[in-house]
Specification:
The complex is a heterodimer of chains A (111) and B (115). In chain A, the strands form three sheets. In chain A, strands 2, 5, 6, 10, 11 and 12 form a six-stranded mixed β-sheet that branches. Chain A has a four-stranded antiparallel β-sheet with strand order 3-9-8-7, with no helix packed on it. Chain A is mainly β and 111 residues long. Chain A is 0% helix and 51% strand. Chain A has no helices and twelve strands. Chain B is built from no helices and eleven strands. Chain B starts with a strand and ends with a strand. The chains are: A mainly beta (111), B mainly beta (115). The interface between A and B is medium-sized, with 23 and 25 residues.
């Protein structure tokens, strides 16, 4: 079945540092890929998405590129802020309509 | 657009009791999903509806779990004879059933604690 693997956290960075959170997936066919973010005490919010190979999703300074050859969708941001501290989830949606999530990566940004 | 709402936000129950959670999706959304999230893990799919029809159920959804969406609007998730292993955050999401409408909008969740 489909699966998503993320790097384990927590990831601790200083403000303005470069962020990479790795995500790889296993799926048949051509899934759509997503990054969701969960801020403390809040629900999941869609951060960005990519629906086909080589697509780049971007939002709020975050980017991720759908790499079919490496089955990856790594999340990057050039300069993190304290307000980016949250848990980040990589997910895929395949032929069915449900999302398959990775285990989540907690990001902590220190001033 | 008031977003997806879930009630209650927190529920503490004793093992063996029945509990019911409610989800109100975004009004024009015809798909509704239930997920379960345990501490430190990503959400896991439980079931989803298109309008009032329950189209898919995960094998995680044991016989003690039942979900309904009687009029294609709000949905309820009932757990009978709760067990400590049922303690988790139960998330509801909704979306449109349109080609290209990929985003699922999540509610804040109901946190269940079984003592």
């Amino acid at each position: 079945g489909d699966s998503v693997t993320q790097m384990e956290g927590p990831v601790t960075l200083s403000e303005e540092a470069f962020l990479t959170i790795n995500c790889t997936y296993t799926a048949t066919g051509y899934p759509s890929l997503f990054w969701y973010v969960q801020y403390p005490g809040e629900g999941l919010q869609l951060l960005l998405k990519a629906t086909k190979a080589d697509d780049k999703g971007s939002n709020k300074g975050f980017e991720a590129t759908y790499r079919k050859e490496t089955t990856s969708f790594h999340l990057e941001k050039g300069s993190v802020q304290v307000s980016d501290s949250a848990v980040y989830f990589c997910a895929l949606r395949n032929a069915g309509n449900m999302l398959t999530f990775g285990g989540g990566t907690r990001l902590m940004v220190k001033p | 657009d008031t977003g997806v709402s879930q009630n209650p936000r927190h529920k503490i129950t004793k093992r063996g009791q029945n509990v019911t959670f409610r989800c109100d999706p975004i009004s024009e959304h015809n798909r509704l999903y239930w997920y379960r999230q345990t501490l430190g893990q990503g959400p896991e799919f439980l079931t989803y509806f298109q309008n009032e029809a329950q189209l898919e159920k995960s094998r995680l959804l044991s016989d003690r779990f039942s979900a309904e969406r009687p009029k294609g609007s709000f949905s309820t998730l009932e757990i009978q004879r709760t067990e400590q292993g049922d303690s988790a955050m139960y998330l509801c999401a909704s979306s449109l059933a349109l080609i290209g409408a990929y985003e699922q909008y999540f509610g804040p969740g109901t946190r269940l604690t079984v003592t």
